[in-house]
Amino acid sequence: MSATTTAGAWLRRFHPAEDAPVRLVCLPHAGGSASYYFPVSRALSPQADVVAVQYPGRQDRRHEPCLDDVRELADRVVAQLLPWCDRPVALFGHSLGATLGFEVALRLEEAGHTPVALFASGRRAPSRHRENERIHLGPDERLLATIKGMSGTDPAVLADDELLRAVLPAIRGDYKAAETYRYRPGPPLHCPVVVLNGDSDPEVTALEAEGWTDHTRGPVSFHWFTGSHFYLNEHAAEVIGLVRRRLARS
Fold first, then answer.
1. Domain Thioesterase: where (predicted)?
2. Where are the alpha helices (DSSP H) in 151-192?
3. Model confidence pLDDT, tens digit, residues 213-222
4. Which residues constitute the domain of residue 34?
5. Whole-model pTM over 0.85
6. Is residue 1 in a domain?
7. Domain tally, the chain
């Protein structure tokens, strides 16, 4: 693969590392974009070739319709990733990205590319859902209040009400994908799963996090950090260090 910051519409390589022994694929949260992982790419290069996924409906893909179904999104992502499986691949997903990472891992394993690790951050196990989640069906004001309270959206976007409302369709689509996802029983993964969460995250209880053990035959480890849903903003160095050490062992 050529050293480029783009690999089609779907993938971003901010710091191409052609000789890296492992490729880390990063999957954004609801309302997030590939650029959220720019600091991760910078910190891990050249140890890992970091590839961040850019969903439709945001930033340079803002004129494209978003995908509001996790399985459809996983199908599309895997189709883009398969040519990049020329070396071991790990997956890191936060929130919606963790659920998507699980579905992507299933498809990669079916294609003969078992990930060396799935880092599942800020998300309960795929089989643990909450029936009362209906944010994607609510008014714009409720959706806006939710994302402002999460602290996961670019402050420049939050400060510009017109811009924020322009990206609402993509955010609503992401929330629909996350809230309507239902696990379909099937064979578990074989790859290790590394579960990371904030200890005061209202989106994930300890019991819901422990459910990840049901979804792989590989080892599962749990890491708790102080903070809420976007604990990783305050613990970026610790999280990146953990990822670095885990990839080195792989």
1. 23-245
2. 155-158, 161-166, 168-180
3. 999 999 999 9
4. 6-249
5. yes
6. no
7. 1
